[in-house]
Amino acid sequence: MKISKHFFLITLLCILFSCSNDDDDNMPMGDPNNASGSVAAKVDGVSWSSDFIDQALWAASQLQIKAEKNDGSLIQISILGIDSTGTYLVGGGNINIGAYNDANGVALSTNILSPEGTVNVATLNSSGAMGTFEFTVTDGAGIEVELSQGTFDISF
Q: Which of 31, 36, 40, 80: CA 20 to 30 A from 52?
């Protein structure tokens, strides 16, 4: 009984003293359910523009953007290890991912077999992100879709 009381007390003290009120200004948190803005691109040469932003956040060195149209098609961008503006590679074996789902639910993404594409993040701060992108997505069975002249302007 004495051991469990000590264990409980030590655990409680560790929890209390490990918590901090420090906010990491370099890692702003976005509310993915409160995002707004726009994403647009040419999808195999046809103009595509989002009707709403389903998710957008910058947290723990990750930038996540998911934009959808009312027809169910979507564009998603996931950049890992992002702490500042710059150009990030997607596809070709890079850890960053670009994805596109068409209105029929066919899911395509960048992967090790797809050519390298880019996401250029021109603005990144606690309020949002802005930039451009272009990449080719595949389904792994030979279907390829090119996303070009892509832009995003997102508020977190």
A: 80
